[in-house]
Design brief:
about 325 residues; alpha/beta; Dihydrodipicolinate Reductase, domain 2; six-stranded parallel β-sheet; 14 strands; about 35% helix; globular; GFO_IDH_MocA-like_dom; Gfo/Idh/MocA family oxidoreductase; Gfo/Idh/MocA-like_OxRdtase_N; nucleotide binding
């Protein structure tokens, strides 16, 4: 795919650092705000990107580009994705895709109208370890307890406490622990166990932002506790507990570097099937293949999952303080 990139922040830097290891990904252009043009130029020079734009609409009109990757603050995902889809570009948008289920439906409607594909960049769902873990669930019997914990103190936490404006801590920009981090736990849990019957969210609020929180999902036969924190030290351990044994893993869920299976009183067995050192390579290899094939079924399945996950996210947001 011939890629145009929107944004020049941390996630774009991270993506570009691994882009040379991705299959069938050609970096054509990058678009950023005028005030960030110098950063975009530096990235373009470092990663051999031929074109730099300070206007998204101009980049979306570029016929050399067939796909747009969006890596900007969460609150901007919906308008930029809709604009790109309307310009007949395939779209890969960073997590969370959008903030509401209605916005998900609107983007899908736009994508279908313009005969292009839409994917949400959700690393964990494309890692090899995820697919193997999903298959290994049958080994531990019926699952009744799920405890997922994505905790890591933010590198910007001290600045946030000092009063500096940090987009990832600004709820109006789609920041906070729920939107920025617990979305990984939500996607993982919903992909494995489906939609919960009940949802409740218990946030820790600092300066009007949920800097951490516990999201409780109730199913007919299990309880899931999804913890995410930007204000506490990590990493921590996550568990999936069944009647015959358990699966557990350490570290951030978005990386899922390995996992363990313990059946009853047997010694735990360690597994790692991931092919690449960087978490974003597997997902972009998948996106490039599906876009090249114009695989509508793959896009439809991705849409259904994103809709289910965003529906949970949307209900959880109701527990946050409102103006």
């Amino acid at each position: 795919m011939k890629l145009g990139i929107v944004g020049s922040g941390q996630i774009v830097h991270d993506f570009l650092s691994a882009s040379d290891q991705m299959q069938d990904v050609e970096l054509v252009a990058i678009s950023t705000l005028a005030r960030s043009k110098s950063v975009a130029k530096e990235l373009a020079e470092k990663y051999q990107i031929n074109k730099v734009y300070t206007d998204n609409e101009a980049m979306f009109a570029d016929n050399d580009i067939d796909t747009v990757y969006i890596g900007v603050p969460n609150s901007l995902h919906f308008p930029i994705a809709r604009q790109a889809l309307t310009a007949d570009k395939n779209v890969i948008c960073e997590k969370p895709l959008v903030e509401t289920s209605e916005q998900v439906r609107e983007l899908k409607k736009t994508a279908d109208k313009h005969h292009v594909l839409l994917f949400e960049a959700m690393t964990v769902l494309y890692l090899e370890n995820y697919f193997h873990l999903k298959e290994d669930l049958k080994k531990i019997g019926k699952v009744h307890v799920v405890a997922l914990n994505l905790t890591q103190i933010s590198s910007h936490y001290a600045e946030f406490l000092a009063g500096v404006h940090i987009p990832k801590f600004d709820r109006k920009m789609g920041g906070g622990a729920l939107m920025d981090m617990n979305i990984y736990n939500i996607n993982f849990c919903v992909s494995l166990f489906g939609q919960p019957k009940q949802i409740s969210y218990l946030p820790t609020i600092q300066r009007d932002t949920d800097t951490s929180g516990i999201l409780n999902l109730t199913y007919d036969d299990k309880q899931a506790s999804l913890i995410a924190a930007k204000d506490a030290a990590g990493p921590t351990r996550s568990y999936i507990e069944g009647e015959k044994g358990l699966i557990y893993f350490d570290g951030p869920l978005n990386v899922l570097p390995d996992y363990y299976i313990q059946i009853e009183k047997e010694e735990p067995k360690h597994y790692n099937f991931n092919k690449y050192g960087h978490r974003m390579i597997s997902e972009f290899n998948y996106f490039a293949k599906k876009i090249k094939e114009h695989d509508q079924q793959a896009a439809d399945e991705a849409y259904e999952h994103s809709l289910n996950a965003i529906s949970v996210l949307e209900k959880a947001q109701e527990f946050l303080p409102h103006d």
